Amino acid sequence: xxxxxxxxxxxxxxxxxxxxxxxxxxxxxxxxxxxxxxxxxxxxxxxxxxxxxxxxxxxxxxxxxxxxxxxxxxxxxxxxxxxxxxxxxxxxxxxxxxxxxxxxxxxxxxxxxxxxxxxxx
Amino acid sequence: xxxxxxxxxxxxxxxxxxxxxxxxxxxxxxxxxxxxxxxxxxxxxxxxxxxxxxxxxxxxxxxxxxxxxxxxxxxxxxxxxxxxxxxxxxxxxxxxxxxxxxxxxxxxxxxxxxxxxxxxxxxxxxxxxxxxxxxxxxxxxxxxxxxxxxxxxxxxxxxxxxxxxxxxxxxxxxxxxxxxxxxxxxxxxxxxxxxxxxxxxxxxxxxxxxxxxxxxxxxxxxxxxxxxxxxxxxxxxxxxxxxxxxxxxxxxxxxxxxxxxxxxxxxxxxxxxxxxxxxxxxxxxxxxxxxxxxxxxxxx
Lengths: 121, 300
Description:
- The structure holds 2 protein chains of 2 kinds.
- Chain A is 43% helix and 20% strand.
- Chain A has helices spanning 11-21, 34-44, 60-69, 86-95, 111-120; strands at 3-7, 27-31, 48-52, 78-82, 100-103.
- The longest helix of chain A is centred in the first third of the chain and has 11 residues, at 11-21.
- The radius of gyration of chain A is 13 Å and the shape is globular.
- The two termini of chain A are 16 Å apart.
- By secondary structure, chain B is an alpha+beta fold.
- Chain B folds into 2 domains: 2-105, Aminopeptidase; 137-290.
- Chain B contains 8 helices and 12 strands.
- Chain B has helices at 11-21, 33-42, 88-102, 117-125, 161-169, 181-197, 245-259, 274-281; strands at residues 2-5, 45-55, 58-68, 71-79, 107-113, 129-139, 153-160, 209-216, 221-228, 232-242, 264-271, 285-295.
- The longest helix of chain B is centred in the middle third of the chain and has 17 residues, at 181-197.
- Chain B is elongated, with a radius of gyration of 20 Å.
- Classes of the chains: A alpha/beta, B alpha+beta.
- Chain A binds chain B through residues 9-10, 12, 33, 54-57, 61-62, 65-66, 83-85, 88, 91-92, 95-97, and chain B through 15, 19, 23, 25-32, 34-35, 138, 140-141, 143, 231-232, 264, 266, 285-288.
């Protein structure tokens, strides 16, 4: 079973992703800020990280930089989840070393397929 | 609805309310209590002059007032989604402007995120006028750039906090609230306060200002000031004293990033002028824009 770590501070957004991914039988872990996201990632070594780019304790760019510095986590695909305009979000995500970007609000009909593509890439 | 001084609330309550006002924003920028505390210290926000709007037991909005000499600054103004379209934002703004008047602050400044039309219209209604657009930009670590500019350096000097403050005092460009001399002075104040407070703050975040003063072979001169933490360069300011603004800015930044190649870089509120071209040449990209606005002569 593939493990996905979602790092997102907004409860409603976390819950929505949980519900949308429910039928896919992934093991979904949650962290609500950057520090707990790093701790969980180090403990669980997920197959994919879904990262909100605006967190309360550090911004997403900083967190991506930190994750990429850690040998155990450096190669885990990171997908930025952001409400920022697609042009900015996409460029920012790629330049900071994310493997992709999904803009919010997520498309609930497509989200599962989008995640599957990243997991199987 | 009643308006209360923000000092009646805990930092945790204010943080939670602030985050709730931004949940559906284009750029939410959530904070935790430590970051909000840092923000208030750096930017001279006074909680007793700031206001929280409460409806029954629920906070429905808040707005903060910063004060420096005879200038005020409104920040973190927001209304929770369920309190909108009820005049809460206007009521908070009224209270903050009245407080500014009581404090003899003739000019009140603020910034609104480009694209936040309802807020922009509210501020215009209150006689705030737009002064300029400011850019928030980032540069990822290890961004590969052409470092050929290094060859053109005639003289280079590395300065520390107090020397950099002296240079900041002599800046020719009109600074924004976030990049003003008071903010730079507060960097050290913040470090001291947080060290006294102790435990829940990352020590690597607590540093002072550093700077590089450069004279190039073609006669161009300038300096770059910054705060280096383990992961990030913050509070980056560039002053071109002589020479082409874009080329000199790019040269200064290239030197900075050669010195700190592994750090991410964040700059806030750079004017959209020739120097910004230099930032772009050095690998920075625009994340979003703010509109700076001022309301003059509140004191009658």
